């Protein structure tokens, strides 16, 4: 069958693999889909329109619009010379065998347009991915919910007079007021105002917190013992504010978290309603009743909505936000009628990967954030996920690219590709998600070669003998090697 018009010629086939091949991507459509690859969003804001915020209403009056973000990565050139497997191997063989990366370095490199495998070293082997897991979480959440889906937080009348039940839907970005951590988040003060209006002159007397949409343990299987208190993770509950942060003003990074985020959020809501913290408890919302007091039990008193899924994905990837990741994994579970738990989210993500036509036997998850050491993902599955997100067959998945950090420019790559010897070629040319646990270092994403060819790559290591000071530059030299070569 001839190649589609405008597509790069198909290279000579490589050694056969058992994996199912993705269809060839139309180059002209790829240019459009990957236009977002040239835009970075470290915190949502400059792209508020396409992220779902309404900037045309009264709140926008008098606000100076932010400039459009500048391009960072160029669009792929379908006519650029394609690297060859031999050329790529000549560059990467010396880099993947360095002692700093340990004895298990699994790598996959593929051409985004043609899908040709250019480098394969343990590419189909399940490896501990750390935070690179979030790429799978992003793709499955966008596939299961769609980019425009918003997570509701509702308030309903309780069974007793004056009781207000707040029902957590799983929005981790919910704020108390305008000082929240996540820009554009839904706010409890807005919900409280709706409740007061709905109740008229009736004063609330108690608040019940309903987080029953989630089930199971609040901490993930395979998490290191210090994660619950170390500031990078925390208890996963269906109701929380500011990602469970005690202080939403803390800059990105480790932050003290509430041990019981649902009750903390319930008490904040109670304060806004003029209810004593002593009158806050956990419970479940009553079923809507046709009769009873005014309002009848179960009557909706208000609802606020999270930012759209595409924005939540962007936040998760750009900040490597672990609690947002766990919330999105549970959204995949809910969309597939699975329990919203660690086990349910993992099973639903596996099923979503299979439904997308990818080899689900190459992904085994225990959480959505990558904090679990029980997670296993193959490098080739990651490169296939990235190619699928670039495919015109799945435009709903393109949102995965918006938050990817850029080498020497943003996110977790801001300080990388700057000073370490042999990494400079990756500055501005590498856009990728990173992952780090003790003895585990990973990176996966996109890189533009010196000739303008767009490649996808994944490098996973889970037996690293030293620390990140030596492992990360060694990883970066691999991506920089791809960026600096034509690899003919």
Structural write-up:
- Strand 1 (105-111) and strand 2 form a beta hairpin.
- The model is unreliable at 1-67 and 69-73 (pLDDT under 50).
- Helix 4 (133-145) packs parallel to helix 9.
- The chain has a five-stranded antiparallel sheet with strand order 2-1-12-11-10, with helices on both faces.
- It has twelve helices and twelve strands.
- It has helices at 27-33, 48-51, 85-96, 133-145, 188-199, 227-230, 261-273, 309-319, 322-335, 342-355, 379-389, 468-483; strands at 105-111, 117-121, 152-157, 163-167, 206-210, 280-282, 300-305, 363-364, 376-377, 430-437, 440-448, 454-461.
- With 488 residues, it is an alpha+beta fold.
In short:
The chain is of the alpha+beta class and 488 residues long. The protein contains 12 helices and 12 strands.
